Every structure is written in C-alpha cells, then in structure tokens.
Amino acid sequence: MEKTKFGNAVDTKIEDETSLKNTLASVFLMGFFLIAAWVGIYFLFLQSF
Fold it and tell me: What is the reported pTM?
C-alpha cells in the first residue's frame, strides 16, 4: 500500500486481463456499430438518386 500526501493508505492493484479483454470487446463492438451505421446511411444516400 502506498500513502498519499494526506496520509491515507491507497491500494494500488494491477488491472487483470479480463477487464482489458472486456474493454477491447467493447471497443470492437462500438466500432462495428459505427461502421454499420455509416454504411447504412451511405446506402440510403445512394438510393436517393
């Protein structure tokens, strides 16, 4: 445990890999959603001609 300048003890834990894997999965899902939305809007735009 480390002490802050106020004297409080703080736990410094290394994040385990599961939270990093969940973060990566969330980023990929958000990216796929954004790409699908842009492609859908693009096809709607093409159909307007």
Answer: 0.58
